[in-house]
Amino acid sequence: MNKEMPPEFYVLLEEIQANDFVVLELNLYLDTHPDDYEAIKQFNDLSKRSMELKIQFEQQFGPLMHFGKSFSGYPWNWNDTPWPWQV
User: Fold this and answer.
1) From residue 43, how far is each of 31, 36, 40, 48, 81 by CA, in Å?
2) pLDDT number for residue 63
3) For residues 87 and 10, is the Cβ–Cβ distance under 8 A?
4) pLDDT tens across 7-18, in order?
5) pLDDT in tens, 28-56
6) What angle do CA 50, 33, 69 make, to 5 degrees?
């Protein structure tokens, strides 16, 4: 059974998803426009922001990714739900 999560969980997760959507779109754009300095700058800024948001999320709510891409708290907290992909 999924436990009730605070509103901040959903707000932060949505911010991560929105930020990562823009990063993905910029990545695709830059594949065809590799000399667009402003797009590269925006990509790098948003990539950094993505990392910061994910660190913040994991510190507050636990791991976002598996297979060694996120750390676990003690005790092992991969079995804590909801997982980000279940929301």
Assistant:
1) 12, 11, 5, 9, 31
2) 80
3) yes
4) 999 999 999 999
5) 999 999 999 999 999 999 999 999 999 99
6) 25
**Where are the domains positioned within the chain?**
9-61
Euclidean distance between CA atoms 76 and 34, whole angstroms: 42
Amino acid at 40: I
pLDDT at 5: 86
Cβ(43)–Cβ(26) under 8 Å?
A: yes
**In the 3-class helix/strand/coil scheme, how is the chain assigned residue by residue?**
CCCCCCHHHHHHHHHHHHHHHHHHHHHHHHHHCCCCHHHHHHHHHHHHHHHHHHHHHHHHHCCCCCCCCCCCCCCCCCCCCCCHHHC
Closest by CA to 53, choosing from 13, 87, 81, 26, is 13
| For residue 68, pLDDT beyond 60 | no
